[in-house]
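Re: that chain you flagged

S.,

Sorry for the slow reply, it's been a week of failed gels. I finally had a moment to sit down with the sequence you sent. For the record, here it is as I used it:
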Amino acid sequence: MQCFLRVTPARPAPHSPTVTAAVTAGRSAAAIFPTGSGKSLCYQLPALHLPHLTLVVSPLLALMQDQLAFLERHGIAAASIDSSQGREQTAAVMEGVKRGEIRILMISVERLKNERFRTFIKNVPISLLVVDEAHCISEWGHNFRPDYLKLPDYQREFAIPQALLLTATATPRVIDDMARRFAIAADDVTTTGFYRPNLNLLVEPLAAEAKPRFLRDWLRPRLAGDTPPSSIVYVTLQHTAERVAGYLRQAGLDAVAYHAGLDAETRDRIQRDFMHDRVAVIVATIAFGMGIDKHDIRNVVHFDPPKSLENYSQEIGRAGRDGEPSDCLVLAGGDNLRVLENFVYGDTPEPGGIRTVIEAIVSEREGNHWELVLNRLSQRSDIRALPLKTLLVQLEMRGVIAPRYAYFAEYRFQYRIEPDELVARFSGERRDFVAAIVAAAERARTWCQLDFEALHRHGREHGLDTRRARVITALDYFHDQGWIRLETRQMTEVYEVLQSDVDPARLAAELHADFRAKEAAEIARIHAMLAFFASDTCLSHRLADHFGDDRAPRHCGHCSVCAGRVARLPEPPAPTPLAERDFRELAGEFLERAADEGDPASSECVTRFLCGLTTPRLTRLKARRLPGFAVLEGYPYGEVRGWVEQHLEG
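Prediction finished late last night. Pasting the structure tokens below so you have them in one place:
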């Protein structure tokens, strides 16, 4: 326990003992502490005293790796199961958990749908479920993750007596939602202040073309010296990251671009270089920063506006974790507003796509069970994966379907020993069982594809137990012994259909209305964020007030407004009126390509094409290669939609 007491967070959370006391007393709790203030201690310390496993659900691999590195440095037995591991590593972790050697296990929420993991974890006693970035559970949170809504059900299913919710960015409404879903008493919800006295909140109103030069001139004196301080510049788009980083390098500043379009090895190298002060400036999309535990970041710049005040708070929270003064600058203007809005509109599925999903549930169920492969259903319904997950969760919440389990539809393997040698390692009924597996695995060059149906028929005919669960256990065993190399593909999710007599048209309309309401709320969130930057009241006080913190000073003395610089955001240049644009010239080629497919494009589909929003269908049609793609991305989405409807109806 002494190892934890030596840890000094950037700004120690004064209420963490209260949270720890609630957990060790056997109650569920929630901790809403600013970034870098030691939220993790709230579960790390109790984990040493609780009788069984502490299971931590975290949304990003980077967050897990950061926490695991901390625990390893302090001699705490912890591990993760994640997508970067091979089967041998995963098996070793599971064995360590079984034996009680591992006290803390970190996973993603998606892992709880994996049939092998579910079978394993049901037999492991768990004392505490920890939900990191817990605001993801609320539809009113800024990073809503549909699968997080299932966590209260998982807690009941796996008989976990307590839950601990952790987040740095949650409004009062989100906090209430989180606590309600996990039945956490109000007295066990601990919120510290959001005010950071060492962060200078600065807003500079600029037109788009003036931003690169201003950024260069602002950074140059701050990076002077032999050891320039660490700085992050946030942008919205990948190509902007490359462009801005290149501009800064040409100006003689040490800058590197970081975004999800880079391969994992390159991203890891850039991150390591930043952590070890080998690069001063990272120009990044929001793919960078989660899980970054660097205490001396002196400058955080938003070249483009953040997605929301919650995102802004989270991103500036990476500056000055050592308590030293740090600058947080926003280059504010309305030039990128449409891009942010279009991201929101792109997540609203069309009514026809929603109806396709509902009709699939009704018509394709076998008895009261319905199976789906997410990517296939995404293609059929033309709904992107994340909105489709949200739709499925909404159907769960309405009592139409209920998740039961998931399994891999395809198992393939390579022999590392000869098939005859594999069979010869067994005797009696087991030998016949293994021989049946070998016979049902069609071999194409090096890979063998297992035909479960053929294997099941063979089992019936010969009186063998060839149940799927037994076959999968055997394949895992063969792999662990090094006799085969096993791969799994095509995750199939199985739902129980609770209502099969629904009216698809009516239900689709209701669900579409829900999506549109969420869309309106997200658009309002963007405009609230822009209004914040143009505020004439203290920025620090206003930001704290947004999160329900009434303890911040009314005049902080270290923001733009307190310095007498109220931002007047410049409007972007007005685009050419749509009435003067040629609809057929912009959309004609796309309409022809869609018609050739046998399914004319809807007004929503054409609008997304013109505004540069991708969907599975647009990807299939290779719409990005057409000259009209994204040509109207600078226009309000609703205005483009109305213009498209006029032309298609006319």
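What I noticed first: The first helix runs from residue 2 to 5.

Talk soon,
D.
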